[in-house]
Design a protein that fits this description.
The chain is mainly alpha-helical. It contains nine helices and six strands; from the N terminus they run αβααααβββαβαααβ. It has helices at about 5-30, 50-65, 70-100, 105-110, 135-140, 170-185, 200-205, 210-215, 220-225; strands spanning about 50, 145, 150, 160-165, 195-200, 270-275. The strands form three sheets. Strands 1-5 form a two-stranded antiparallel ribbon. A hairpin with a 2-residue loop joins strand 2 and strand 3 (about 150). Helix 3 runs antiparallel to helix 4 (about 105-110). It is globular, with a radius of gyration of 21 Å. The model is unreliable at about 230-240 and about 245-285 (pLDDT under 50).
């Protein structure tokens, strides 16, 4: 069945553009702290999963950019290796859970693991950089994850400092919602497909064909009463919705602005969160 995902892809690209804008905003506010640049590939070894719409989009762009040939084979070979490495780590995490290790400890341990992204070429450059996932677009600035602020250790953001922090989970929630809407509009036997989370490697090696999508055949449609497909609703949220909540700075005032104001150069006003201290204590908002 010929499916046109271009309207959903356009909506996804709009969310990715918001992520780019958020990164640019933090970079503008903290130019001395954001150290991302050409040649740095630290984020290309981090573990994270893609939503259904991200996996579908990345697969689509990969197929367009890499027709059958040696270059494509090289990426797929790296993807297969990354999949095997990820499977080993997931089994390790599962065994830890059976042994009573807390979920937080498991997640913290997994966050320190490193697997080379299959899209990272031999020259340490992303071979699909223009179409990289949202997580990649925001790596390098402070992110709020599960109520805590986290950032790349290679940046100039120091533990205990207050910095503008992107609420990445707000964007991820919208990606999940978009994924569910896309799947909800398909004649599929797999309605929970929109909730899937998969690594980049899986998105590259998978063929998102009729069988994978669980599309109903003509025989299925004859046997199954037809129901109207839900109409996707546009999800619009301003960029500000992806940023943190007020946190007045201590000893603030060097810039001449009111502590905690949006104009404050040192704390970033309504976007400021505290990064974890040297002891790894959880970060949080200050009232």
């Amino acid at each position: 069945m010929q499916l046109d995902f271009s309207p959903a892809f356009a909506r996804y690209e709009a969310i990715a553009a918001e992520a780019d804008a958020a990164f640019a905003k933090v970079s503008e506010m903290c130019p001395d702290f954001v150290s991302c640049g050409e040649g740095c590939s630290d984020c290309c070894h981090a573990l994270f999963d893609l939503t259904f719409i991200e996996a579908l989009y990345l697969n689509h762009q990969f197929n367009k950019a890499f027709p059958p040939g040696p270059a494509r084979d090289a990426v797929l070979e790296r993807a297969n290796k990354a999949d095997r490495d990820a499977a080993i780590l997931k089994r390790k995490a599962f065994r830890a859970g059976e042994q009573g290790v807390s979920t937080r400890e498991i997640l913290d341990s997994m966050s320190r693991e490193r697997i080379r992204c299959p899209l990272l070429g031999d020259n340490d450059r992303c071979v699909l950089y223009r179409f990289r996932p949202v997580t990649c677009r925001l790596y390098g600035v402070p992110l709020e994850i599960s109520g805590e602020a986290r950032t790349c250790g290679n940046t100039g953001f120091t533990p205990g400092g207050r910095y503008p922090t992107v609420k990445i989970e707000k964007l991820q929630d919208r990606l999940v919602l978009l994924s569910q809407e896309v799947v909800g509009a398909l004649p599929t036997k797999l309605p929970l497909l929109g909730e899937m989370l998969v690594p980049v490697s899986f998105a590259l090696v998978t063929e998102f064909d009729d069988d994978y999508l669980g599309l109903l055949t003509e025989d299925d449609l004859v046997r199954t009463p037809e129901a109207p497909a839900p109409q996707p609703q546009p999800v619009q949220q301003p960029l500000q919705a992806t940023l943190g909540t007020p946190a007045p700075a201590v000893n603030c005032g060097s810039c001449g602005e009111t502590a905690g104001s949006s104009a404050c150069a040192s704390c970033g006003g309504s976007t400021s969160w505290v990064l974890p201290g040297p002891d790894g204590a959880p970060a949080g908002k200050e009232d």
